[in-house]
Design goal:
alpha+beta, globular, 11 helices, 3-stranded mixed β-sheet
């Protein structure tokens, strides 16, 4: 069986078609999953396939090569990706985070130059905020850029960067004025194919998300044209990030909802087939009660996220709402999947079983996009 939820207001027939088509594509990738996990990244061909199918930059206007959709299209893609258990694909960083930064804050020239290449998969995009030692403290980043003629010269390093190994375009948070805090932060776009002095470090070895490339990045006197400053006004980077981070946090929560649904469905199938003491595990009251509790958490989380999608479509998603949704949903995601692993017994600890991979992949959800402790701190400031 498959658990169901309330049909969200935002889910139109078109959104449903996107979901169905994307789910088919993501499931077709499952045969490559083991290879990608061993390699620590998905193939570049998968990016090109997603671009050819129209699944990159789905919410970007057609004038810039995108799908002309809205955030609901991105949400449909997120649910499909999560339910197919393909967390290695960094499409939402590329399409759901970097592309909207460029669309909302970029100049006309920047949008025309970069977005069409992102929509086809010619460019893979990453956003580089986190540095060694700073974590979620974006005001105190050390990477800096100084003017030299018509260029910036960039020095510094970043870590935990999704799509770092593939990225042709990196939206880099750096200091253009090191004497200031948040007011000295700017976002500069680095096109890596043209960037002498740019180096990719290790593809980091993680306890989960093993098919997603997550990298260290190094910038040693990297020369970038000043026209690559996002929006062409220095010192706006922190404000730009604060405006866009609610979207990122909702994206994390949506992927958590999709993972919860997959975990519950996998576990239902397992406990109805697996026998213990001469009867299916499903026949034990504890099993049924635990599954009912997990289903209730899924319904609550999905309803919360669907309401947030409605809000973002109306440009009403607030910082405290997005922060608390990200915190609560990812917390429930980890709790639900832990219960599911327990019902699998010893097999739930074996990585050949998808439930074990879901368990390992879930843990970072409470960390990236701002730790859940930071989410509660942010929300409390508005109370």
């Amino acid at each position: 069986m498959s658990i169901e939820k309330f049909t969200p207001n935002w889910m139109t027939e078109e959104h449903q078609m996107v979901y169905d088509s994307a789910l088919k594509m993501f499931k077709s990738w499952q045969s490559k999953d083991e290879e990608w996990r061993k390699n620590g990244m998905i193939d570049r061909a998968a990016w090109e396939e997603a671009g050819a199918m129209g699944f990159l930059c789905a919410s970007i206007p057609e004038a810039y090569g995108g799908g002309g959709g809205d955030f609901g299209h991105e949400a449909a893609l997120l649910y499909a990706q999560a339910e197919a258990n393909q967390p290695g694909f960094g499409g939402m960083v590329h399409s759901g985070i970097v592309a909207p930064y460029i669309l909302k804050h970029g100049t006309a020239e920047q949008k025309t130059e970069w977005l069409p290449k992102m929509a086809t998969g010619e460019y893979v995009a990453a956003i580089a905020m986190t540095e060694p030692g700073t974590g979620s403290d974006l005001q105190n980043i050390k990477t800096y850029a100084v003017k030299d003629g018509n260029d910036y010269i960039i020095n510094g390093s970043k870590t935990f960067i999704t799509n770092g190994q593939h990225a042709n375009l990196i939206l880099l948070a750096c200091k253009t004025d090191r004497e200031k805090g948040a007011q000295g932060v700017s976002l500069i776009v680095v096109e890596t194919d043209k960037a002498e002095g740019f180096e990719r470090g290790r593809n980091l070895d993680k306890i989960g998300m093993s098919a997603q490339d997550t990298s260290e990045l190094f910038f040693s006197n990297v020369r970038v044209p000043q026209r690559n400053l996002l929006g062409a006004v220095e010192g706006k980077g922190f404000i730009q990030m604060m405006e866009e981070l609610p979207r990122e946090r909702l994206i994390i929560a949506l992927s958590g909802v999709g993972a919860m649904k997959l975990a519950i469905n996998l576990t239902l199938d397992y406990v109805k087939e697996r026998e213990a003491f001469g009867k299916p595990v499903w026949r034990f009251q504890n099993t049924r009660f635990k599954m009912a509790e997990c289903y209730a958490d899924y319904l609550a989380a999905s309803s919360m996220c669907d309401a947030a999608v409605d809000a973002i479509l109306e440009d009403k998603l607030t910082v405290p709402h997005a922060s608390l949704i990200k915190y609560w949903v990812t917390q429930k995601q980890c709790e639900v999947i832990d219960e599911c692993v327990q019902l699998f017994g010893g097999y739930g600890y074996m990585t050949e079983y998808p439930i074990a991979r879901l368990y390992a992949d879930a843990r970072v959800q409470k960390i990236y996009g701002g730790t859940n402790e930071i989410m509660k701190e942010l929300a409390s400031r508005f109370m």
